[in-house]
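Our working data are protein records whose layout never changes between entries. An example says more than a description, so a record of this kind follows.
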Amino acid sequence: MRTLLLSIVLLASTAPVFAQDAVVDIHVHLHKGEASVAEYRAQLKASGQSVDAFGAMWFGGPNQALAGNPADIRKRNDELIGLAAKNPDMIAIATVHPYDGDAALAEVDRVAARGVKLLKIHPHTQKFDAADPRVLTLVKRAGERGMIVVMDNAGIVPDDNEKLFNLALAAPKTKFIFGHMGGLGFRFWNILALARTAENLFADNIYFDISASVILAADSPIEAEYVWTIRNVGVDHVLIASDFPQISLPKTLDAFAKLDLTDEERAKICSGNARKLLGL
């Protein structure tokens, strides 16, 4: 009996220590509004997972926020803000289209005044060039209003990493979260370790969510490089995210658990960094 108890203790001490009860999922798409919130919660409950908070946006999938219809974008932003008011753990992520000019800037001002902290824009699905001057004007305005700009960074569009890096350099007072950490082009972002050494170049205003890319990297030949990149961009600048409904949070966390990270690094990425960045 004593031998059995000792074996159990030894097994417990060697098992991965990864408490998943403190999680902020920063990348959730609500394609069907309130029904999607219910689906997200049901998926978590089925896996025994919970979240402290989740950042949610209305657009993506069947819902597009294209140029030329700012009134519709405004209406949908309001619906999202209303949904967040019913769900205290939901963080509203509004959107605009950079090519809508003054209307887009006015919408940034309006949603910021309503307490929205995150603004998502997507070069690929919204069909704009991240190097367009109108994008720089928009992200600077968002930064002036205290908003963090979330942008897709899955390497879908040409020169994706380079354009986003230049955008962040040109808007040093705006904080950015780049989704997917470059996808399979994640290696590019190791340049940040050098950018930090250049005087008056980089404002350290780039953060990353690792949705999708963590699943490709975990338990693969590129896993060690991926972890190396997380540390080079700065563990304090990396956030867990699911990209629901395309990918579930439980699947994301399962992949994340395979990475060779310390418990302290895991805690920061799962919730600590998001709490600090968003003032939760």
